[in-house]
Amino acid sequence: MTLLCVPLVARTVEEMVADAAAAAAAGGDLVEIRLDFIQGFRPREHLPLLLRGCPLPALVTYRPSWEGGQYEGDDTTRFETLRLAMELGVDYVDIELKVADKFMSFISGNKPEKCKLIVSSHNYEYTPSCEDLANLVARIQAVGADIVKVATTAKDIVDVSRMFQVMVHCQVPMIGLVMSEKGLMSRVLAPKFGGYLTFGILNAAKTSASGQPTVEELLNIYHIRHIGPDTKVLGLIANPVKQSKSPILHNKCLQSVGYNAVYLPLLGDNLASFLETYSSPDFSGFSCSLPFKVDAVKCCDEHDPVAKSIGAINTIIRRPDGKLVGYNTDYIGAISAIEDGIGGPRSKDAAISPLAGRLIVVAGAGGAGKAIAYGAKEKGARVVVANRTYEKAVSLANAIGGQALRLADLETFRPEEGMILANATSLGMYPNTDGTPISKKALSFYDMVFDAVYAPKVTRLLREAEECGVKVVSGVEMFIRQAIGQFEHFTGAPESLMREIAAKYT
């Protein structure tokens, strides 16, 4: 079982002792005591206090500044401290590859049988090739490491795949982690690829390396205790992706139906490169969001007819034969949310949508805009597409038989009463939450405003629309409905089941 290690980075011994108790209460398996973070550290006085009352097995690290730590002193003092930790019964000691031979000579090759030696190498610039990583692992093994630790940095999410390849072939226990937000996958999937341990922090203020998730996230969102070699990998590939609530919702649903998979946020730069790199059948399905929904059309081998008509994909399924099939659940999610938002008396003919005959202005001509424009047209609405790049608005409008405008034209566009506005741009989305596609003054032209942005739940657009007395529909409604469709494609679970689960967690 991959262990969950909680790094302790407090500035005082007292706070570090308290954090060790918090780590045990949170569900950690061991703690990493970062001695280099303690101000005024006095080894013979402080080490017994840290180790003898520690509620969990302990790993002691005294990281020098030249390896990314905060210790500025000489190696002899540091080595003496690590040897003292061994004598006091510590479970693990971490030493850097650069000085591992020197340290082994210092302790004359002797260490307590209980204590395991972790020999580590950190690369804060990039992730080397598979060949270079394998050679590095061999060098670490050769100095007598009980456990190999290699930490690199992801410039692109595809870099993580090289670490996975090396980990599964390592002949001794290995900790293989890729730092930065793009490397998060390496931390969550450590159990799948045989990692000896992974790190989870107590909270965002107590991090020891970039890209570390919290203990709570690893245990309660990603459920790493249940991840193993056969676990399927699902996820949302987007840029940005940190704001997404999809991992919370999908992982809760996966757990509820007992489906052996984990759903991850995947910060990508190039969709085609990502799909080509992670081509194993275990990487079985993906959600696509900004800016990849249109790119996904070219990446898929087959397309659902609706997705092909829209020209945008938000769901990719990898079949057992390796073929990628694209779907679009955005249009169902958005249109049904808008229809419910319109409310009012329904037609006696259930086939007639409350959108029929209405004028809807779609702001944005990207993937979400295409889905909403297509869906609205199918429901009998008259569609106007407004976009910052006018040529894209024209292209989409022509495809669905609508009218094109520049986004700036919305300030004065008022051909009739009772219009509906649907924002399908990223304006207002985290982290640029002050953005909006239209001024507050112009919002009074509309009867209803829908915003596909759901993080934050109440965007500036929706807040200002409400202040104008306009009916609003949050992007949360679209988010839930499109996710229900995705989950059915991912797992085959019936829509009704996920709807019930979604109601609990959103």
From TrEMBL:
This is Shikimate dehydrogenase. Gene3D superfamilies: Aldolase class I, Leucine Dehydrogenase, chain A, domain 1, NAD(P)-binding Rossmann-like Domain. Residues 236-316 form the Shikimate dehydrogenase substrate binding N-terminal domain. Residues 354-414 form the Quinate/shikimate 5-dehydrogenase/glutamyl-tRNA reductase domain. It holds the Pfam family Shikimate_dh_N. InterPro entries: Aldolase_TIM, Aminoacid_DH-like_N_sf, DHquinase_I, NAD(P)-bd_dom_sf, Shikimate_DH-bd_N, Shikimate_DH_fam, Shikm_DH/Glu-tRNA_Rdtase. CDD domains: DHQase_I, NAD_bind_Shikimate_DH.
